[in-house]
Each structure stands twice: as C-alpha cells, then as structure tokens.
Amino acid sequence: MGLSCRLLGLPFRLRSSPAFPPSPRAILILKPCCVGDVLLSTPLVATLRRAYPQARLDYAVGPWSRPLLETNPHLDDLVDCGRVGSGRYGWSDYWALVQRLRARDYEACFVLERSPLITLLPYLAGIPHRVGLDSGGRGFSLTIRVPVKGIKHEAELYLDTARAIGVKVERPALEFHPRSEERERAQAFLAKAHPLVTIHPAGGRNPGMYLPAKRWPAERFAAIADRIIENLGGSVVLLGGPGDEGVAAAVKDRMTNEPLDLTGRLTWGETGAVLEKSDL
Predict the structure, then answer these.
(1) Helices and strands in the chain, H and E counts
(2) Contact between 39 and 176 (Cβ < 8 Å)
(3) From 118, 126, 148, 154, which residue has the greatest number of CB atoms within 10 Å?
(4) Half-sphere exposure in the Cβ direction for 65 (13 Å, CA)
(5) Is the peptide bond before 195 cis (omega within 30 degrees of 0)?
(6) Domain ranges of the chain
(7) Domain covering 2-163 in this structure, CATH number
(8) Cα dihedral sign, 53-17-125-98
(9) What is the CATH number of domain 180-277?
(10) What is the C-alpha to C-alpha distance for residues 71 and 42, in angstroms, rounded to an integer?
(11) Would you say 69 and 39 are in contact if contact means Cβ atoms under 8 Å apart?
(12) Please, are residues 134 and 12 in contact by the beta-carbon 8 Å criterion?
C-alpha cells in the first residue's frame, strides 16, 4: 500500500499547491465513521469555527455517527456520506458522494481519514484546498499533508490539520450537546446516590468491524461496580446500545449488587445526558 500510494502521489507532488486562503467561504470536514473518532474530531470543529466565524462549515459523516453531530452548534450542515466509509460500499455509492460534494462548491476540506479512497474524494469533487492526515503516503492527493508518525492522541492528530495552516488551537475539548428534552428523560432514570458512575462494558463494534477482544473482561467491570456501591455508597449505571444487552447481562450476572441497566434503552442524546450527570 505504501509504495503504490507513493507512486500514485508523484503527479500530485509535481504540482505546486496553492496557499490556504485567509478567509475560506465554505469548509468541509470529512470523517464518515466511526462514533468515537467523530466525537474526537469535535475540538477541530470548534477550532475551525473560531478561526473562520463567517465561513460555512459543514461535516460529511455517515448515518452511524451522524447523531454525534446533529446538535453541534458550530456546524452549518451535515452531508450524508451514505455507505461510503461505513462498511461495504460500491462505486456507485462513491461516485454519488463525489457529486454531492461537488454540488456544494467547497473551497477547503479537512480529511480526517487515512484511507486513500476517502482522501481522494475531495480531489474528485474539485475542492482546491485539501488538508489531512498522511499515513504511509496514503494522503497523496492532499494539498497540505499532515504526517502521522509515532504515538499521538487521535484528537491531537485532527487538531494538527488546523495547526498545519497556521490556526492557533486554544483550550480544545470534546463536545456533545444533548437536547433539553433528552436531559429531562435521562434525569428521570437516574438514582440520587452519588458518586454516580457509568460503565459501558461493550464497544469494539462499528459498521464493517467487530472486535470484541478490545473489551475489558466482564468480571473486572463487575468487581469495580461492586466496590463503588459497597465502599463508596454510590450508584452504577450500565450503558450500551441495541445489541449490547448480552454484554451488560454478563456484568450483572457477576455482580453481588444491582446496577441500573439502561443498555439499549437510550438514544444517543439521552446517553450523553446521563454521562453529563455522572461523576465518573
């Protein structure tokens, strides 16, 4: 992959890249998937909004991760990536996304993917300024390439794309904005005993990917939950989405105390509201 991408990148490297505009009128952030990574990109969203308050700032994201951005106040619009970047997709899906992006006439795009196919999208859509991650030469079609080297937090890597064009990063923080009605519904579920600790024992599942080996063993979650209840007098909430019920049940079966199990019962917004109320 590395050698082929470097060869494909030769024509791009021979061209002179234009300077990034001081006041771009329309900016796109491209990150189709997945939930955790999209959430980790929200500091970049806020940074770009502060740097370019007059620009139209859109985000291209797939349906799986879209709920994480629907209430983000810094974004003007969300562009549906469809199946592209979220599991299996065909060339018709890919070309349809190219056409959607081209129709919106963006001046700049920040690409937060390492896939050469995803990175190529803004080039094919005619976006002149393309800033993004370059891992092993896979960002060959970008006009400003941000090297991915060593170990670095993913959120910081995304922020490096802003730093690469001279934008100052100040007090970065993850952002998620539950609606008021979601906060009210979440509050109705919660116990009053504190500390309130939420545990998400599942994970490792996204479109086109299932990696249960990334999960911590159920008996360890159970041991921690029991200690919180017995030693601290706190409350424990188990969180998860549809399909995670079995994982939550495995934790409950190993506990001597009773947690509040909300697995599969909450929307993304309600989940965020529960986390907002949690001490840990």
Answers:
(1) 11, 11
(2) yes
(3) 118
(4) 30
(5) yes
(6) 2-163, 180-277
(7) 3.40.50.2000
(8) negative
(9) 3.40.50.2000
(10) 12
(11) no
(12) no
In the chain, helix, strand, coil percent, each to 5?
Answer: 40, 15, 45
The whole-angstrom separation of Cα 231 and Cα 120 is 54
Kindly report whether the peptide bond that precedes residue 34 is cis, defined as omega within 30 degrees of 0.
Answer: yes
Cα–Cα distance, 252 to 258 (Å, whole number): 7
Residue with tokens 């060593």: 150
User: Per-residue pLDDT tens for 176-221?
Assistant: 999 999 999 998 888 677 899 999 998 777 666 667 777 899 999 9
Vertex 253, ends 247 and 258: CA angle to 5°?
105
pLDDT band (50, 70, 90) for residue 18 = confident
Amino acid identity of residue 180, one-letter, is S
Instruction: Please state the three-class secondary structure of 205-263 as a single string.
Output: EECCEECHHHCCCHHHHHHHHHHHHHHHCCEEEECCCCCCHHHHHHHHHCCCCCCEECC
The share of the chain scoring above pLDDT 90, in percent, equals 80
How do residues 247-268 score in pLDDT, each as one tens digit?
999 999 999 999 999 999 999 9
Q: Is there a common fold for 2-163 and 180-277? A: yes
DSSP 59-119: EEE-TTTGGGTTT-TT-SEEEE-TTTTSS---HHHHHHHHHHHHHTT-SEEEE----HHHH
d(CA 10, CA 115): 18
**Any residues with CB less than 8 A from the CB of 208 and at least 6 apart, and which?**
86, 87, 88
